[in-house]
Design a protein that fits this description.
- The structure holds 2 protein chains of 2 kinds.
- By secondary structure, chain A is of the alpha/beta class.
- Helices cover 59% and strands 7% of the residues of chain A.
- Chain A is built from 19 helices and 7 strands.
- In chain A, strand 2 (68-72), helix 4 and strand 3 form a beta-alpha-beta unit.
- Chain A is globular, with a radius of gyration of 28 Å.
- In chain B, helix 11 (226-234) packs across helix 15.
- Helix content of chain B is 57%, strand content 8%.
- Chain B is of the alpha/beta class.
- Classes of the chains: A alpha/beta, B alpha/beta.
């Protein structure tokens, strides 16, 4: 069994945390200020994206100041009663060991409406009269559920560490693990994590553990270089076989699942087949294959799969003359990339759509389609309207940023 | 949003749909409302009419007696079984003996949910009346239709839309030229929600509004261009046209049905021989049908783009 590197290299002191230097300093000062007298706001509300070191900072800080950290996270029940039991007592009295206490409510986003009803209300009450420093952590402090609680807290934002900061950190780990890693390889790993240190370290471990050397190609192709050759051979057979049986057989030897193979064919079809008539005929075959895929979905009858395969392989092969105008290399399905890239966009659209829907008596889908486009232009034009509408719709900072940015 | 700020609060304030408004007033007077279907195009006052009716019936505190559900967001059968039922069966404590449940975008409910709804409507008629709001009443199952009084909302008349624009611009202290108003009307038709959204967006520029401002903000709000995508395909660049299509679907969140609707209406404005327009309409219809059946939007629409590529090259060769 191996230890996850995220644990093995967890920061022991606050200085070791990656990025967010200013925020870390503020936390330290605030906790230390309790030594004189309890500050006006008796809780810190730390918020920011996942993997930016919020919890790690608090654990490291407790370590630094030799305090006893009492934690509650989403795995605990957080009904009013449970919270009272947990923190009510903990925040009132000192510990047996004489150590000072630091109370941490982690993963507050995870408080669910029904199962943990009342939990937030009790947390708010506890914060108001706390005798020990309390730390609250959530991804989004501006969630309307926290609006009351927020008033009694000092807010501290954690931002995504830069690629350089993460690269430096991974470099340290690879040195300790005695892995000779190319700078590019580490850089690419850091970049792919886009600010999430935890996932960067996890990825790095998956790629590098047990290796002496880590190259750029290892990272870019996730250690399976020949996968590329196999899929290229399959595509070659499908597009260029003289015998349509060969095209059909190629699907069996493919190293990817059939949906993914379909995407490869669909991506590359217009780059291989230039004649307009043949392009239309072969695209028709893919559309036909897609219809069978729909029929399989709605009837759950998987024997229909053979027709899906027929049309996307033999159907394509039989519908054109295979007079290639010269070698064109195959490319990776760009649709897959755009879909995963736009996933966050679509989630954001529907979240904003919900907010609008609540106010304007329309569904989130209609709001996303009919209202957001105009809202975007308004936000870019007029700060006054932007401020008014943001408040009225109860948008959080990410949403405002999303609507204001020009892209 | 101005659409909310200027949403009429009482039946008397509604600028259009006179007959409907009169009938609703008589319901309120009799303190009796049948189950209703409000059907008609977007932005014609269906939701407003329902809310105003409730206001007239129960007075300013009407929210207590009304539940508003959006069937597109909450369209499953469980919503009917739980939320709707719980609301419907508890007795109203006020003067009026029933509560009102407004089901917006009801044509997007699954047919299972509609079946369940039908029973609920019957069983709890004494304690709850339903107002179903839909663009197309045809998408609502027959048994429900037969239990409801139908109301057909139509696009607002030109003069009424203009009156509304004047009212709002006076209230917001913005200047708008005749040409500006014309431009808005042309784009939004009789859809008042769209009209007001465009007006507010144009006002956010912070200058007197003319037709240029209107076109510029609408263009910025809808940067995709179905016609341009079709021309790209007709010119033979399939890969580029496909990229544009993908952008509409993924980035701007358009539904395949929106795209194909626009393709269809653009087809007849294209500069291609008439016989090709008819041929293309046939293909478009086929693809539309496939989308309704649940095939993949991008794949099917791409096949259509490939047909346009083919058409373009045939036309060039003089066929």
């Amino acid at each position: 069994m191996h230890v996850p590197w995220t644990l093995k290299y967890k920061p022991e002191t606050l200085d070791e945390v990656v990025g967010n230097e200013k925020a870390r300093k503020q936390i330290l000062q605030w906790v230390q200020s309790w030594d004189k007298k309890p500050p006006k706001k008796r809780a810190l509300f730390i918020y920011g994206p996942p993997g930016t070191g919020k919890t790690a900072s608090i654990e490291a800080l407790a370590n630094d100041l030799d305090m006893e950290l009492v934690q509650s996270n989403a795995s605990n029940y957080r009904t009013a009663e449970a919270v009272e039991r947990f923190a009510g007592r903990a925040s009132q009295y000192g510990t047996l060991t004489g150590k000072k206490r630091l109370i941490l409510f982690d993963e507050l986003d995870g408080i669910t409406g029904s199962a943990d009803r009342g939990g937030l209300r009790v947390i708010t009450q506890i914060v108001k009269k706390a005798g020990n420093p309390i730390i609250l952590i959530a991804n989004n402090a501006y969630d309307p559920r926290f609006s009351t609680l927020r008033r009694y807290c000092q807010l501290i934002q954690f931002r995504k560490p830069t690629k350089t900061q993460i690269t430096r950190h991974l470099g340290k780990i690879s040195a300790k693990e005695r892995i000779e890693a190319e700078d590019d390889a580490i850089g690419l790993t850091a970049e792919r994590a886009s600010g999430d240190v935890r996932s960067a370290i996890n990825d790095f471990q998956a790629l590098a553990q047990g290796k002496k050397r880590l190259t750029y190609d290892d990272v870019s192709w996730l250690s399976s270089r020949d996968r590329k050759e196999v899929i290229f051979n399959t595509l070659g057979a499908i597009f260029y076989s003289k015998d349509i049986l060969d095209a059909k057989r190629a699907a069996d030897s493919a190293d990817v699942d059939l949906d993914m193979l379909f995407e490869w064919i669909y991506e590359n079809l217009p780059h291989q087949i230039k004649d307009p008539k043949e392009l239309a005929a072969t695209m028709d075959m893919l559309a036909l294959a897609d219809i069978y895929r729909g029929r399989i979905r709605s009837t759950q009858n998987w024997t229909l799969m053979r027709y899906f395969v027929d049309f996307m392989t033999a159907g394509v092969a039989a519908s054109w003359s295979k007079r290639s105008s010269g070698w064109v290399s195959f490319r990776f399905p760009s649709r897959i990339m755009s879909m995963s890239r736009s996933k966050a966009d679509r989630a954001m659209l529907s979240a904003i759509g919900m907010k609008i829907g609540r106010r304007c008596h329309i569904s989130s889908a209609r709001a996303a389609k009919d209202v957001i486009p105009y809202l975007r232009v308004i936000f870019q034009n007029s700060d006054e309207m932007k401020a008014g509408l943001s408040g009225w719709l109860d948008l959080d900072e990410d949403m405002i940023e999303y609507l204001t940015s020009k892209k | 949003m101005w659409t909310e700020k200027y949403r009429p609060r009482s039946l008397d304030d509604m600028v259009n749909q006179e007959e409907i408004v009169n009938r609703l007033k008589s319901f309120a007077k009799a303190q009796n409302v049948p189950h209703c279907i409000f059907a008609g195009p977007p932005g014609t006052g269906k939701t407003t009419a329902a809310l105003c009716l409730a206001n007239k019936l129960y007075g300013p505190g009407y929210r207590e007696y009304v539940m508003e559900l959006n069937a597109s967001d909450e369209r499953g059968i469980n919503v009917v079984r739980e939320t709707v039922k719980t609301f419907a069966r508890t007795r109203s404590i006020g003067e009026v003996s029933f509560k009102i449940l407004i089901l917006d975008e009801a044509d997007n409910m699954t047919s299972d949910a509609q079946q369940a709804l039908r029973r609920t409507m019957e069983r709890y008629t004494e304690t709850a009346r339903f107002i179903l709001i839909a663009n197309y009443s045809g998408k609502i199952i027959e048994p429900i239709q037969s239990r409801c009084a139908p109301f057909r909302f139509t696009y607002l008349a030109r003069e009424d839309v203009i009156k509304r624009i004047h009212h709002i611009s006076h209230d917001e202290d913005i200047k708008i030229s005749e040409e500006g108003i014309e431009a808005i009307l042309e784009i939004s038709g009789g859809d008042l929600r769209r009209t007001i959204n465009i007006l507010q967006t144009a006002a956010s520029v912070g200058k007197p509004i003319d037709d240029e401002t209107v076109h510029s903000v609408v263009g910025r709000a809808n940067p995709y261009d179905v016609r341009q995508m079709m021309l790209t395909a007709l010119n033979g660049d399939f890969a580029e046209a496909r990229k544009k299509l993908r952008e509409m679907l993924l980035k701007y969140g358009l539904a395949g049905s929106d795209v194909i609707g626009q393709i269809h209406s653009e087809t007849f404005r294209l500069n291609v021989p008439d016989k090709w327009k008819i041929k293309l309409a046939d293909t478009i219809g086929e693809i539309d049908y496939r989308l309704i059946q649940g095939s993949n939007e991008e794949i099917q629409l791409s096949a259509l783009l490939a047909k346009l590529v083919e058409a373009g090259s045939e036309i060039k060769r003089g066929h």
